[in-house]
C-alpha cells in the first residue's frame, strides 16, 4: 500500500554565513516535526550550529496497526511494539523512497552524504538505523534515542551480506533504564548486534529516564554532531 509523502518540514537554520552540513532528526510515532523541534528546544535551548542546518520532517499519515489501524503520523507500520514480530518490509520500503529523496535534496544543495547525520527518537531512531546501515552508508553518523530494531531485522541481514571491511557510520545510542514502552534490553541487544556486524559506537544508559529525551542525552548528541561535522 502506498503512503502519502512526508508532511510539513520544520528546520533550524544554520547561524553562520555558510551551510556545510545537515542533521535530520526523525520524531517518534504519532508525533510531528514541529513537536520534535520544540521538544529538543526544551531540552537544550541552543540546539543550533553555525554551519549546520537541522531538519525535522513529519512522517506520513497512514494506518498504524498498534493503534488499531487508525491513521497516525508514523514512518512505517508494524505488527506490534516488540522485537519479536516480523518487520513490515513493504511499509519500510515506502518510507525508504522519501528518506532517500530527503538526502538527495541535501546532496543537490551541495551537502554530500558524509556531511549529513541522521538520528531520531523511538521509531525515528529505528528509521535512522535503516537509513545509515542500509540506504546510505556514506553518512557521517547516526544517533538513536529510546529505539530498537526487530530480531532478525533486515538491517542485520544486509550488514551480514556486506563486504567485510565496509566503512559504516558511527552510532550513538541512548536509552532510559525506566523505559516502560521500549525495554532497555531491546535497545542494548540492538546495539550489540550492530556492533557484532562492524558498527562502531557508544551505548549510554540514562538513569531514571522513561520513554523520553533528557538534557544529558541531548548534550551528548550535540557533542557527537560537533565532533563528526566540524566547521569547514
From TrEMBL:
UniProt keyword Lipid metabolism present: no
Q: Name one GO cellular component term.
A: cytoplasm
- Keywords, ordered alphabetically: Hydrolase
Q: What is its EC number?
A: 3.1.2.22
Molecular-function GO terms, alphabetical: carboxylic ester hydrolase activity; palmitoyl-(protein) hydrolase activity
Pfam short name (any one): Abhydrolase_2
Record-annotated Phospholipase/carboxylesterase/thioesterase domain positions: 16-228
Q: Which InterPro entries match?
A: AB_hydrolase_fold, LYPA1-2/EST-like, PLipase/COase/thioEstase
Q: Which domain of life is it from?
A: Eukaryota
Q: EC class of this enzyme?
A: hydrolase
What protein family is recorded? Belongs to the AB hydrolase superfamily. AB hydrolase 2 family.
Instruction: Give the protein's recorded name.
Output: palmitoyl-protein hydrolase
Q: Which organism is it from?
A: Manduca sexta
**Organism lineage:** Eukaryota, Metazoa, Ecdysozoa, Arthropoda, Hexapoda
